[in-house]
Amino acid sequence: NSQGHSAVRELLCAQEVLPDFRESGDPTQPEQSDVQITSKPKRQRVGTFVDAHELALGSSRPPTLVAPQLKPRMQTADGALAPDLAAALDSMFDRLSADGQMLSAEEQERWLLTINRQLGRGSEYRAATKAREARGGDLIREDFTNVYVAEAQAGKFWGIEHDLNAVLGAGVADPSTPPFTAVFDYIYFTEQTLRLEGVQDSLYSMSMPALPNEEHPSDHLPVAAVFSLR
After folding, report:
1. pLDDT tens digit sequence for 42-53
2. What is the pTM (predicted TM-score) of this model?
C-alpha cells in the first residue's frame, strides 16, 4: 500500500534495509524522507525478489489505485487545513457533540465506533485518547480538529474521507475532479525458483472515474500474474 521506493521493496529487492535508508517517491507521504525506518539493519535470506509487473511492462505499467483526488481539498500548500476540510470537521463535531462545545466520553466512544467499528484501533483512537489524558477531561473542538490535522499531515486523506462519510454521509471529494492514480499494488517473486509467464491485463482506463463505484468495489484494481516452476 505505497508507491515509490519503500522499505518493503528495499528489503525484498536488495535483501536488506539499513539505518540510513529513507523511503522516497510517494507524494502521499510528504515526510517520508525524514523518517528513519529502522535503527538496526534488517535482512532477509530468502533471495532477491523481482517486481513482476515492472519486469513485464517496465515504465508503462498502469496504475492500480484510482481514488478521489483529496489532498487539494484537505490541505493547503503550506500544510494547513484547507477550508473545505475545516468546514467538514466543524460539521462532524457538531453532529457528534450534544452541546456543540465538548465530546463527552460517551460521544467520543460513539465517534470512534462509527469510524473504526471497534474501540482500541486506529490512529484516531490513539490521538483522541492522548488528547483526553492531556486535557484531563472531555475533548473540545480544537482537540477533535487536531486529531485530523495529524491525519492530514501523515497523508491519510482517504482515511479522513472515510470518517467524514461514516459520520456525515458525505465527504469533501469533488466527483468532477479527475482521480488520483498511483501504483500501490505489487507481486514480487524470486527468479531462482519461478519463471514469469505473464501478467493480467489491467482493468484501468484513462476515462475511469474515482473508485470505488458500482462496478469496482474497491479503489484498488486487482493484479495477477502467471508463473511456472523452474
Report:
1. 999 999 999 999
2. 0.79
For residue 23 the three cell numbers come to: 523511503
Find how far residue 84's CA is from the centre of its chain: 20
CA distance 64 to 78: 29
In the block, which residue shows the cell 532477491?
48
**For the chain, counts of helices (H) and of strands (E):** 8, 10
* CB burial of residue 216 (10 Å; 0-12, 13-18, 19+): middle
- Taking only Cα atoms into account, the Rg of the chain, rounded to an integer number of angstroms, comes to 21
First to last CA, the chain: 29
Alpha carbon 26 to its chain centroid, in Å, reads 11
| Interval 3-57: pLDDT, tens | 889 999 999 999 999 999 999 998 777 778 889 999 999 999 999 999 999 999 9
* Residue 151, all three cell numbers: 491525519
- Cα(177)–Cα(64) distance, integer angstroms: 18
